[in-house]
Amino acid sequence: MTVRTWTAALLVIGDEILSGRTQDRNVAQLASWLNVQGIRLAEVRIVPDRQAAIVEALDALRTRNDYCFTTGGIGPTHDDITVDAVAAALGVPVVVHPEAQAMLEAHYAGRGGVNEARLRMARVPEGATLIANSQSGAPGIRVGNLFILAGVPHIAAAMLDALTGTLEGGLPVLSATLGCWVGESEVAELLREAERSHAGVSIGSYPFFREGRVGANFVVRATEQPLLDACVEDLAARLVAAGYAVVTGGI
Amino acid sequence: MTVRTWTAALLVIGDEILSGRTQDRNVAQLASWLNVQGIRLAEVRIVPDRQAAIVEALDALRTRNDYCFTTGGIGPTHDDITVDAVAAALGVPVVVHPEAQAMLEAHYAGRGGVNEARLRMARVPEGATLIANSQSGAPGIRVGNLFILAGVPHIAAAMLDALTGTLEGGLPVLSATLGCWVGESEVAELLREAERSHAGVSIGSYPFFREGRVGANFVVRATEQPLLDACVEDLAARLVAAGYAVVTGGI
């Protein structure tokens, strides 16, 4: 059985990430969520709050992936330009979404009402639908294969919750980890041979240095459980035969 | 006085980042380091351990930025393909660097010597020079405006230490932060006007939700101290006039 691979890209938008002020959390968060949906995060770009940079990145990412996500730049302030940039990339106007406006009016009913800045968060590229946001008033936005999410990680997470199970995907990537107290350079050839012997399986080697000792975790990935299991068993046997103790699940 | 802006790009290479297994730390680390050198991190891409993806990204990033950094993929195992991909992007062969080989021989002298896997870490694109690594045996690599660093953050940090003060840059971006317990949508117009009134200054608004209250930090950025100070003073005055308490340094 051949199953096609579904891919997604992420465009992280924000001067605060590129200045080093804010540690991004959305790459890892989206990657993990996508995998459960059977979709592979294939590439990420991080660009500043500048329309030309956003449009250029969107043009590349949305055309060669099944899905394209953005995070950041959808708040009420002047530096929030994602919706305008997405509309420019798609060649559509920006319109006020009536349902989004109603959501904001409800959310801000006891908090001074909807002013001009808050109404900015009801603006969407024409043709868009909304992504529910259980955490704050402003919804996410879907337009075609583009998903516009908040930059604040727990709000982005709420929007992903709302999307769970709604995107078509393929098989999730399964993985298993074996750990060894060994320098990876001692077993590099062994790893290469184990990977070569199992088509459809990849092995990643991730070294570390802890408690004064070097070690490595070997992450085996495949989309089919029997392939994964066979490779893990083989790799463990090779490591043990070479004289190393293997920690199932990783160190 | 007009000072040109120096820019850098970062290419993060690694399946482990795109799978969500590993939280990237190098974007923020490099961004902060670059700023001290007077260089702006202008864009970031994250790609898998696949040569075509690496080459495509390098072609774009290295030609339109003064400097281009890579992290990841320079270890001894089969999934470490950065050097080969960089050489392919530059159209040069891969050669063993004698000085790197000597470093590895010294490092592994009491640890079983240099085997084939370890010797992989002495391979460089032809014409490259080395970047000292005080943390482990394998050096970083400089070739033209490309800087090839380790993916493990503390080793990348050691390589950046070795580069400190060696790259030509312009003025660092100065920043100052004002915090307010206010929803950013209440002061969006005020922020926009403050930014408009101060050419050469940008204001970023970063909302948060803590202890049951909404707040925001406003980060003012400029390359000249008097410009920065004038905008900060003006913004603080506008916020106070609107009835908000301002926390200098941010919340």
From TrEMBL, chains A, B:
Q: Which Gene3D superfamilies match?
A: MoaB/Mog-like domain
Pfam families per record: FLAD1_M, MoCF_biosynth
SMART domains per the record?
Answer: MoCF_biosynth (SM00852)
Which residue range or ranges hold the MoaB/Mog domain? 9-171
Family matches, as PANTHER family: NICOTINAMIDE-NUCLEOTIDE AMIDOHYDROLASE PNCC, NMN AMIDOHYDROLASE-LIKE PROTEIN YFAY
Q: What is the name of the protein in this document?
A: Competence/damage-inducible protein A
According to its UniProt entry, this protein's organism is Sphingomonas desiccabilis
